[in-house]
Specification:
- This protein is an alpha+beta fold.
- 65% of the residues lie in helices and 12% in strands.
- The chain has helices at 6-22, 27-54, 73-80; strands at residues 56-60, 66-70.
- 5% of the residues are buried.
Length: 81
């Protein structure tokens, strides 16, 4: 499959879903497209995970200064509540 960008993978995945949903492709092609779709889903999940690791948030400390910290979704959810 090679290295493709997230947007390209998502576009291909959407095309596969549309083709499978319309039911116009033969079974053997449908199975091949399904397998390709699974690979694309995994690729998208991997790329999203990598992007999430790169995200940092700016936190204001008690002394009024700012510092960068890694994004941790659970911590953000705790702070919202």
């Amino acid at each position: 499959m090679g290295e493709i960008k997230f947007e390209q993978a998502l576009e291909k995945l959407e095309d596969i879903v549309n083709r499978l949903e319309d039911g116009s492709v033969p079974l053997d092609v449908s199975l091949a497209k399904y397998e390709e779709g699974v690979k694309l889903v995994r690729l998208c999940q991997k790329k999203l995970g990598e992007a999430k690791k790169k995200i940092e948030i700016l936190i204001k400390t008690k002394d009024g200064k700012f510092k960068l910290e890694p994004f941790e979704e659970r911590e953000i959810e705790k702070k919202r509540k």
